[in-house]
Each structure stands twice: as C-alpha cells, then as structure tokens.
Amino acid sequence: MIEAALTAKLLTLTGNVYQSAAPRGFTTPVVVFTRINTDPADDLDGSPDQAFALFQIDTYHEDGLAAANLATNIRHALCAWSDGTVAGVSFHDERFWTDDTTTTRLYRVCQDFLVFASLD
Amino acid sequence: MASMSFKLTGFKELDARLKLLSSDIATKVGQQADRAGAVVLAKAVEAAAPDSRLEEGHPMRQGRKGGGTREYPHSKIKNNVKVRKTRNVSSTKVQSTVTAGPAFQASFEEFGSIHNRPTRFFSRAVLANMDAAVAAISAGLNKRLTKRGV
Description:
The complex is a heterodimer of chains A (120) and B (150). Chain A has 120 residues and is an alpha+beta fold. Chain A has helices spanning 2-11, 64-79; strands at 17-19, 30-40, 50-61, 86-99, 106-118. Chain A has a five-stranded mixed β-sheet. Chain A starts with a helix and ends with a strand. Chain B is an alpha+beta fold. Chain B is 47% helix and 12% strand. In chain B, the strands form two sheets. In chain B, strands 1-2 form a two-stranded antiparallel sheet. In chain B, strands 3-4 form a two-stranded antiparallel sheet. The longest helix of chain B has 26 residues, at 23-48. Chain A binds chain B through residues 20-22, 26, 30, 32, 34, 36-37, 56, 58, 60, 93, 97, 99-103, 105-106, 108, 110, and chain B through 2, 65, 108, 111-118, 120, 124.
C-alpha cells in the first residue's frame, strides 16, 4: 500500500504525519499528505498492480524557515526513494503559502510528487 | 490557482495571416480566441465545482484572529467561475484567467488546508479539457481571421 509506505518514509523525517487532514490538537511541525490522482500502469496480464500516484504533501510550521527546511528534506528523501514498494518518485511542484485557518498563522509548503509504486 | 500551458502547432501559417492585419486588430483577434478557449475551461470548472447546500448570498460569519467576527454573503463557486482578461508580463502575449472571483473557498477545495483534504476539482477539469480548449482557440482564430478576409 503506497500510503503506508509513504507514512513510514515521512515518519523518518518528522513525528507528526497525517493523511488528508491534521487532527484537532496537533503539534507542529505537521506533514499532511493526500493522494490526488491514480493512473494505473497498463498490464496485459490482468488487474494492474502498479500505478503513477500523484501526491500532495503539505508541510506546516509556525516558523517559515523551519517549514521550508523540512520540505527540502522531504524532497530529497522522496526523490532518492526506490525499494520493493516504490519504483521511483519525481518532484513536480512546490508552493509557499501561509495557512490562516488556525489560531496561530502557519507557514505552509505545498509539494506535488508523482510516485510510481505498487498499489497493493 | 495553478497555471496551464498548451502546445500549439501551425504558428507560421497563423503568423502570416495575423501580419496581414494591423497590430490592434491582430491583438483583438488573439484575445477573443484566447477567451474562447478559456470559456471552455471555465465551463468545465463550473461543472466540476463542489456544490454546498448554502444558497448564494447566505449570511456567513468568520472569526477574526484578533477577536470579533466579520460577516459576508456566501458566494457559491459554481456561480462565480468567470473568465477575465489579464495582463501578461510580455507585451506580445494575450492572456485570459479563469477565476472563482469572490468564492474564496475555491482555493481551500482545490489545495486543501490543514483541516481539509484537497480535491483539485479545478486543475482536474482543466487538464481533462485542454484539447477542447486548444480546439476552441484554433476555431476562434480561424473564424475571426476569415471574417476579416485573411
């Protein structure tokens, strides 16, 4: 499962990793990832077991520089990632925003990665 | 929102036809055709936009960080997807922008926040309709150039 592998990979970089949204009472830094799109690889043998999955990974921190540094570490770790589950990762985009939906302003780095990996 | 670019061919032929017009008319033809392509994308975005139960103009209240609240009328994304002519940094390009206007929640739907997941309804709709937009630009250019006899 790509999500389980991605969670494990991100947990090597920071402690607060969540899927889709952060829970109430979170502590920063926070990393939230969401699978945006799945493009199955053609497989003439039957059901495809590999796919290109587009992930949005958001890094939040009260300190903009800390958010940027963690996002850079994530980019380096993911782009070098290749193992039994994940065949390869390409970096697509990166945007720097603020998130004002919380009591304290959070700096946000929003990254897109295309992951070619096993669906199982 | 995210920006998209398209690959077009036949520029030599197009350039030759545009050069038969004055600069002002050629620019206008380009702007109108570009807008036609953007309208295709705007309609696709409008169709894909999430639709809440709240009616247009429903009174909304937003808490301020420093205390107090701000009241504002709700703007539905579907009702506010518009095409705007925008200025390009290059003086030789025309540009149109598809915007959700006052429906600021569109960015939260598109890219999410720390509280909600992104849906990417906007970029999905644009990507799925890029060919149709290019076809609309092409047809628009041809129609307007033919109308002007070039």
